Every structure is written in structure tokens, then in C-alpha cells.
Amino acid sequence: MYQDDIGKRSEKVKNVVERGAVKKFAEAIGDLNPIYWDEETGKRSRYGRNIAPPTFPRVFDYGVIEGLKLPPKGLIHGEQRFRYERPLFVGEELYCYAEVKDYYEKQSSMGQLGFLIIANNGEDTNGNLLFTSTSTIIINEAVRKAMSV
Amino acid sequence: MTTIREWQVGQSLPEVTLSPVSRLDLIKYAGASGDYNPIHTIDEEAKKAGLPGIIAHGMWTMGNLAKLFTPYYEEGFVQDYFVRFQSMVFLNDIITLKATVKEKDDKTIRFAVAAVNQHGKEVVKGEAVFSLYE
Predict the structure, then answer these.
(1) What are the tens digits of pLDDT across the range B94-127?
(2) N or C: which end of chain A has fewer CB within 10 A?
(3) Which residues of chain B have a Cβ shorter than 8 Å from any chain A Cβ?
(4) What distance, in Å, lies between the first and last C-alpha atoms of chain A?
């Protein structure tokens, strides 16, 4: 049911890697290493500044993919991948957007499962891709049926 | 401090065992990540969804697992990090984080990574590629 959405993308949204948000996120994953929040440690590091944890892109705004209707409940996060050109720097500006990469269905013991692949991308201010966060979302038959009503 | 380059194929980074998963852990993650799906924080909503109780965000476990690499940022960075969410994490579960070197060359170290619960079950399983600086 999502085949027609493949290739659709959101408009790019400006995001900032906010200092307070990075510290709060690092704390929430129990990773309060000073490289993420202590300015002196950041300055002395090879990066010359603080960086963000690899799963931090969860917090960014990727905009809205026009026409993509996801069920409000019952989605299962099956797989997740983060790919980086380099770590993200605290304070830098990014342009983020989402894209429907793929959709397919597979027969399983739990019925016909749908697999929706969404890529969340982040670019620097020059348009260079810095990271891609790819999620595989599993949508079961019952949830899909509830949607088409 | 040991450097990540010294680790050989088959060796593992020091394991980390987390405190039992608490509701506050998940409330904090919801706030920090912006993922307010109530099956992670509110019992009735989890039950309505057919779950025995609230479950951790998969991304909470994945985020925790990445900290095994945090001490080594002067040597390189996590270039590629993939996991499959294999099993649910419930309140009071005790999660242990693991990373073992699978392959290694001059530029990258490939790790098998996993988060394992108190019953020895892999709840999160995947791979991380650590890219080394020159």
C-alpha cells in the first residue's frame, strides 16, 4: 500500500545541533562523556569542539513527506542504521530531510508484514551529506487494515 | 588508556552492564529524543497495545550500546552502525552491552555488537564500523 510513496521526500528543514539537547540526550543514554558537553574537553580534542553521540539524529526535524500516511499506532521499529561522513559538531547547522526508500511485503508466521524503509538525511550548509539514518518500520496486517478504512 | 587499534579479531571491548531498566530511564529518553509513544511510559497504553507492560524504546538500547565506542573518539569515529531490534526490553531488565572485533584493516575495525538481557537473550544485535584516522 506504500509502493506509490517510494521516492517521495520532505522539504529540507534547518536544524541546529543544540548544546543543551546534546547533553540531555547523552544523559538519557547514560553516556555523559565530556567530549559531548564539556567545552574544554571539546577544545582539546582533535575536533576542537564538542560532538554529538551517533544516535543523536533521532531528535532532528526532518519535515513532512507530503502524502505519506502512517498509522498512529502499531508501528514496529525493526532495524536501524546510521552512516556518517564524520561526527556531528555541537553548534553546527544542518539541513535535514526524509525520503521513502522502499516498501515491500513479506509473508511471515504473523501474516503478511509490510516493511517501510525511511531514510533521514542530514547535510551541511554547503549541501554535503553528513549522515543518513535509515529505519525499517514493520507494519502488520491488522494495522494496515485499520488504516485503509 | 588502551587504544582501539590494539584490539585484535576475536577480542571484545570491556562489557558494560546497565542498572535495571527504570521508568525514569524511559521518561528521560522520551523527553531527550522527542519520542513520546506512550507504550514506553504509560502502563495502560502498553496493555492496550497488547503488551504485558511498558517496553524500552529500541533507540534507547541502541543509544546505550554505542557508548562502548565513546572513549575512542580521538582515534576515529563510528562510521556505520546497524542494529536489528530482536526482542523487547521490559522494566527491570538488566542489559549488558557487548562489542567484539570481527574484522580489521588499517582504516577500519568492524565490530559485532549486541545488547543481551539477564536471560542471555540478544535483544539488540548488529554491527558497528569504527573508522580510524590516519
Answers:
(1) 999 999 999 999 999 999 999 999 999 999 999 9
(2) C
(3) 18, 25, 28-29, 31-35, 49, 58-60, 62-64, 66-67, 69-71, 73-74, 77-85, 133
(4) 13
